């Protein structure tokens, strides 16, 4: 089991928090694009009010621990590990609530190469206590605008976690899925669940467009967000997202295992 002190040390040691790989330049660029309402950075959130870059910087300083000084414009960015642990506690609280009710849940990630294992561990634990882990619209095609133009992807599930693949990427040895910020996959999944007349998720757990897209549609959503993903934290500030956990979302997948164990312990789901 992992206690808070051990987890904080782990976060800093593997750069999940503390000084992270995300650069200050990338973070500030994302804040500028969000202020301009660029859909590539909104990732499904429709802000209730205008957010100017200084306001976004202040919000990210509060939620993530980045420097609030606008004159700090280069170098690695930072995440306060205390804020990460506090957000994981709140995240675990929402997981505990759905576990106690045996409520249906939906998992999805735009970072399958890094975060699939984190979500899959939670999906396994919730399934074991009677929560239905939903898999709507499996195999459905989704057209997503990428830097290479409009590309068709296929919605798939691995260990109960939704992701998107490029056609033909199911061969052995292929990556589990592609990196995507798009909210379109979660919209397709939720629409398919509603059309089928089956259960709808009482909680959506994930990152990027999965959290923001679901939250914007009125579903309770919680997830992980890097310091260059302001949409999750704006969504949390405005009430569309229940919990946004500040953490680097691009380190080795094995480094997220202690986070899974910590959440399960806090949610009273660990064996």
TrEMBL record:
Pfam families: Phosphatase (PF15698). It comes from Streptomyces camelliae. This is Phosphatase.
């Amino acid at each position: 089991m992992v206690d808070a002190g051990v987890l904080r040390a782990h976060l800093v040691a593997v750069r999940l928090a503390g000084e992270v790989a995300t650069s200050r330049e990338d973070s500030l660029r994302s804040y500028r694009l969000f202020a301009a309402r660029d859909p590539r950075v909104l990732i499904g959130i429709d802000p209730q009010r205008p957010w100017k870059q200084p306001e976004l910087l202040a919000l990210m300083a509060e939620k993530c621990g980045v420097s609030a000084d606008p004159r700090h414009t280069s170098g690695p960015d930072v995440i306060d590990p205390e804020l990460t642990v506090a957000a994981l506690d709140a995240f675990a609280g929402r997981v505990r609530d759905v576990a106690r009710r045996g409520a249906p849940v939906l998992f999805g990630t735009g970072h399958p190469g890094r975060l699939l294992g984190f979500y899959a561990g939670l999906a396994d634990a919730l399934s074991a206590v009677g929560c239905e882990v939903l898999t709507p619209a499996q195999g459905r095609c989704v057209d997503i605008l990428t830097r290479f133009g409009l590309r068709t992807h296929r919605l798939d599930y691995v260990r109960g976690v939704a992701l998107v693949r490029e056609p033909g990427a199911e061969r052995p040895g292929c990556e589990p899925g592609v990196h995507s910020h798009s909210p379109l996959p979660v919209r397709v999944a939720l629409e398919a669940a509603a059309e089928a007349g089956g259960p709808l998720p009482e909680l959506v757990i994930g990152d990027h467009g999965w959290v923001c897209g679901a939250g914007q549609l009125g579903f309770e959503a919680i997830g992980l967000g890097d310091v260059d993903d302001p949409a999750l934290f704006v969504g949390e500030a405005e009430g569309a997202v229940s919990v946004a956990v500040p953490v680097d979302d691009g380190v080795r997948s094995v480094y997220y295992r202690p986070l899974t164990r910590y959440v399960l312990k806090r949610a009273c789901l660990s064996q």
